[in-house]
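Margin note from the TA: students keep mixing up input and output lines. Inputs are the sequences; the output is the structure of the whole complex. Example:
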Amino acid sequence: MKISGKARLVGDKVSAESILPSAYLTAAPQKLGKHALEGIDPTFVQRVVPGDILVAGRFFGGGSSREQATLALKYCGISAVVAESFARIFFRNALNLGLPALECSWKGRVEEGDDLAIDVEAGEVRNLRTGEVFHAPPLPPFLISLLAGGGLIEQIKRQAVGL
Amino acid sequence: MLEGRTRRLVIFPRRYNAGRRVAMAGMTMAEKVLARASGRERVAAGEFVEAKIDLAMIHEITGAPSCLTLRELGIEKVWDPARIVVFNDHAVPADSEATATLQKHLREFVGDYGILNFYDLRDGICHQVLAEKGHVLPGSLIVGTDSHSCTYGALGAFSTGIGATEMVQVFATGRLWFKVPPTIKLVYIGQLPPGVTAKDMALMTVGRLGADGANYRGIEFAGPAVAGMGMSDRLTLCNMANETGAKVGMVAADGVTLDYLRDRARGQGEPVLPDADATYETTVEMDVSHLEPQVACHPAVENVKPISEVAGKEIHQAFLGSCTNGRLEDLRQAATVLKGRRIPRGVRMLVVPASQEVYLAAIREGLIETFLEAGAVVTNPNCAACGGIHGGIMAQGEVCIATTNRNFPGRMGRGTETYLASPSVVAASALAGKIADPRRL
Ligand code: SF4
C-alpha cells in the first residue's frame, strides 16, 4: 500500500474526545466527517484536502473507545495517520477501519503542508521536501493484509463468501 | 446467510508465532489468562495470540454500530448468546431521538439474536452492573466496546476495551487477536490515612505514570494497601487504569474476591495468580501512608495535585456518581460529609447511584435522605454528566468537581472544566462552593 499526501500537524495527546466530541456520538456515521478534530480545532475540516495525512504527536486518540472518532477522520478525507505513538484502542480501530496508522518518531522534522509518501508494508514514511525517511515498527503480516484489504468488515465479507 | 461459515473466519494465522523463542520464566496474570484463552501452555509479552472471548459487553453509544453492522453483513446468529451482555445505560431515559434510536437498535438486537443478558434503563452503569450481577469471573477474558472495561480487572479478569467493528467479529466468532502486553507491577505499601481513599490512590497513580505511562501495557495492582481494600475500592482503582493508557489493570483474586462473588457469580471462573518469577517491565513501590486527597485538574487527567494546592478553586457543580465512584461505599463517604449540613443555593450537586441495587441500598440506609436534606439532586442510575451526553451538562465557562475518571476539556459541555476527586472531596466542595478538603470540615 502506497499513500501520498500533505502533512496536517496536530500536537501531543489529542484524545478521542477531541477527535470527535461526545455531542456527535449519536449522529449518523456519514455526518461525522464534518466534526473531525473539532475538540481542538473547529476549523480543521475546512483545511483538509482529501488525501491529506494527519501527523500527530504522542498518544494520539487516547481515552474513549469510540470508533466514531476514527470514522470521523476517515470521512473527512484523512488517508493515513502518522504519530509518535497511538493509544491502543485507536490504533486497533484504525486498522479495522482500513485507515493506515504508522508509529514513528518525526518530531521537528515534518512541517505543516510537507508532501509525504508512505509505504505501509515497509513501514516507511518519506518526507519528500527533505528526503528524510521515518521508520515505523513493522506490522505483522496478518495486520498488513487486514489493512490492504480495506479493513475488518471487508475481510469478514471476503472470507464469508469464500473469496 | 453467513451463519455457520463465519466461525471458520481466519483472524490470524497460527504460524505467525512459530519459531519464536519463549523464555521459560513465570507468567504474569495477563499472560496466564491469554495463554489459557488461546489454548497455549505459555505466552510472553510481545507475542500475538488469537484468543477465545469469555464475555463481551456493549452499550448503546459505542455498541449500536456493532449490531447494525452485524445485520448488514447478513450474520444471523451470534457465537454464543449467553456470553454477550447488552446495556442501555449511558443516557437513560433517552435524552433525544438520536439516543432513543440507538437504544431501540439494542433492544431489537437482543430480541432478534436471542441475547440472554440485557440490562435496560432501570439497571445502571455497565461496569458496575456487570460486576454486581456476577458476570465477571476471575481469570476470564472480557472485552467491551468501552474503554473502562478495564474495571473488571478488580476481580482478576483480563478485561479491555475494543472498537465497535472488532465487536462484530467477536459476536460472529467469539475470537479476537491480542498482543500480549508487558506488565508494570505497582506495589502499594502502608495504610491510607483517614479521609484518603482508593480514588486518591488511583489519581496519584495516574499523576505519577502520566496519561500514556502504561500505554499498551498491563498493570498488576498489588501490595498490602490493595490486599486490604474491599471490592468497591478495587473497582475504583482498576477503573482508572485506562487513564494511564493501560490495556488491563488487574488485582489477583483473593478472599475479598470470593466473598464478593459468593452470592453473585454466574459460573466458576479460573482464577490466576502471578508466578513469583513472572517478568515485569518495571516494578514501582509506592507508600500511601502519607497520601493527601488528590485532585486531577483541568485540562488533563495526569495533571494531579494534592488538595492543598487546589483548594479554593470556585465550582458550579459537584457530581457524585459514575462507574468510578457511584457505589454504595462512595455514597456513604459523601453522605458522612454532607450529614446535617446544607449546600448553598449557588452550587448544584448531582448524585447518581451507579446501579439500581446501589440506589435501593442507599435509600434503605437513609443516604438518599441525607443527600436531599443537604440540597443535592438525586437521579436514576446512568452515566449522566460523566459522559457529557446526559443530565448535568454545563454551560461554557462552568466548573465541575466530579468523582468521575476523565476531565478532557469540554467533556461535560463545550468550554467547561472538570476536576476529578474522591466522593468526600466532592461533597466537601459542594458545601463550600469551591474545592475543599473534607478533613478540614
Ligand atoms: S460512567 Fe462515565 S466513564 Fe463510566 S461508562 Fe459511563 S460514561 Fe463511561
